[in-house]
Specification:
By secondary structure, the chain is α/β, with parallel strands linked by helices. It folds into three domains: 195 residues, Beta Polymerase, domain 2 (2-Layer Sandwich), CATH 3.30.460; 152 residues, Up-down Bundle (Four Helix Bundle (Hemerythrin (Met), subunit A)); 93 residues, Hydrophobic Seed Protein, CATH 1.10.110. It is built from 22 helices and eight strands. The chain has a four-stranded mixed β-sheet with strand order 3-2-1-4, sandwiched between helices. A four-stranded mixed β-sheet has the order 5-6-7-8. α6 links the parallel β2 and β3.
Length: 462
């Protein structure tokens, strides 16, 4: 989601050297007869790059962003060398027609440059119109080479018009295109496709996209237990995992056209501290996922009992008095998953606030939006807010009270107040837990008649 500089890139793969070796093999045997040697060279370069990145993971076991970006970089170089070999040696064209243009996009996790060691390679081939014979030959040759390397490749081949039409009607394709990253080929065609995607697919569908993505998220949560605290969590799809973070980024990108998660701060959806928490959780989950793939030698996203101890060891969690390394590791995992839940709540509340500001208002809007006071709290536009920055510090019981009023009055918590509650939650100490007023307010939440379940979730996320 954010550009990562790969240290000593040539140690991962030297594209110039690999291209030179392939050119030499073709010069000696001819393009057709050199195929076996070309595959050997590509496979060898890929194996050496993976070995180097696995070594780096062992040296820096928590560097999730760097390692996953490294694996994406490795595949970038392989595919670029492969493309140039195919269009130069196998299907050269001196004067291409306007239809003989082809661009390659990385999509999915590969598009985000977040690839675990055994992640699928997801690519999209785009052409300006109906595929010409040359485009078909190039695409087919590249796919066969990728399969010969033993890679699991997800791919699509579409014209720009087809991409636009299909993205309008399919959320999965729309999300894939949203994450699309220029990989190689005709860059002008990629720029044209990207511009048309945002102009003809995204524009005017922002609210629909948010609704569909959140429904998709909720369905996924229910399918996997609807809890962040399962004993064998799915690091990618589980509640509070990588997919939840990616959903926030997708929404931010769809609405504000951000190019990295860091830009979510600039558009007002996160504070800098919240972005740092986002980045920390994301990096941890990416590192854990990379270790899972390395240990099992396959694409594995489930943090099962038999793997938890080994991942904890590799990530250098140590035993402490009264708590084993694996217990400390899982405690840290659940802490990050909880933070993802908190960030999701704050992000969506802030997004709702932005949408509310953009809602057209009629002649009576000023009258309807007039602020009122409920038991000392400000209520405006269906949201309840604290009176000032020290509101909870002055009386920590208010951390319970505000949620009880929200449930009783059918209100939402203002995003800024949710941030204050998350910041000040440590004020809930033993004296507050035994305070009769705090206990009475909490019991009222539990017995609430409107929507106590939602309010309790808000309290948990704060």
């Amino acid at each position: 989601m954010s550009a990562i500089r790969i240290p000593n890139q040539r140690a991962v793969l030297d594209r110039r050297k690999l291209a030179g070796d392939i050119a030499e093999a073709v010069a000696e045997a001819g393009a057709a007869k050199a195929r076996k040697r070309v595959v050997e060279l590509l496979r060898g370069a890929m194996a050496e790059g993976r070995e180097e990145l696995t070594r780096r993971l062992a040296e820096k076991p928590s560097a999730g962003h760097e390692i996953t970006a490294g694996f994406a970089f490795l595949m970038d170089q392989i595919i670029r060398v492969m493309h140039d070999h195919v269009v130069t040696d196998l299907y050269p064209v001196n004067n291409r027609s306007s239809g003989e243009r082809l661009t390659i996009m990385a999509v999915g996790g590969y598009g985000r440059a977040e690839m675990a060691p055994h992640s699928d390679i997801d690519i999209a081939f785009l052409t300006p119109g109906k595929q010409t014979a040359w485009c078909e030959q190039v695409i087919e040759a590249m796919l066969y080479l990728l399969w010969d390397l033993g890679l699991k490749v997800g791919h699509s081949s579409r014209s720009v018009d087809d991409m636009v039409r299909m993205a309008r009607g399919d959320l999965t394709i729309r999300t894939a295109m949203l994450e699309g990253r220029y990989l190689w080929g005709d860059q002008a065609l990629y720029e044209e496709a990207s511009a048309r995607f945002f102009a003809e697919v995204v524009a005017g569908t922002e609210r629909q996209f948010v609704t569909e993505k959140l429904a998709e998220r909720n369905d996924r949560h229910k399918r996997l237990g609807d809890s962040r605290y399962v004993v064998e969590p799915n690091i990618k799809e589980g509640k509070g995992g990588l997919r939840d973070l990616q959903t926030l980024y997708w929404i931010g990108k769809y609405i504000h056209k951000v190019k990295s998660a860091a830009e979510l701060v600039e558009v007002g959806l996160f504070t800098r501290a919240e972005y740092r928490a986002f980045r920390r959780a994301e990096g941890f989950f990416l590192a854990v996922r990379s270790h899972l793939h390395t240990i099992t030698n396959r694409a594995e996203d489930r943090l099962t009992f038999d793997l938890q101890r080994e991942v904890a060891r590799r990530m250098q969690f140590a035993d402490r008095p009264g708590k084993s390394a694996v217990e400390r590791f899982m405690q840290y995992y659940f802490l990050q998953a909880k933070r993802v839940g908190s960030l999701s709540g704050i992000f969506l509340a802030q997004l709702d606030e932005q949408f509310a500001r953009k809602t057209p208002r009629g002649l009576l809007a000023g009258f309807r939006a007039r602020a009122r006071s409920v038991r000392g709290y400000k209520v405006f536009g269906g949201r309840i807010a604290a009176q000032g920055d020290d509101w909870f510090r002055d009386d920590p019981v208010r951390l319970i009270e505000i949620f009880q009023i929200a449930e009783e009055e059918g209100l939402e918590i203002h995003p800024a107040t949710m941030r204050m509650a998350a910041r000040d939650c440590a004020l809930i100490k033993e004296d507050v837990r035994h305070d009769p007023r705090a206990n009475a307010l909490f019991l009222k939440v539990l017995a609430g008649r409107r929507d106590p379940e939602t309010v309790l979730r808000w309290m948990n996320e704060a």
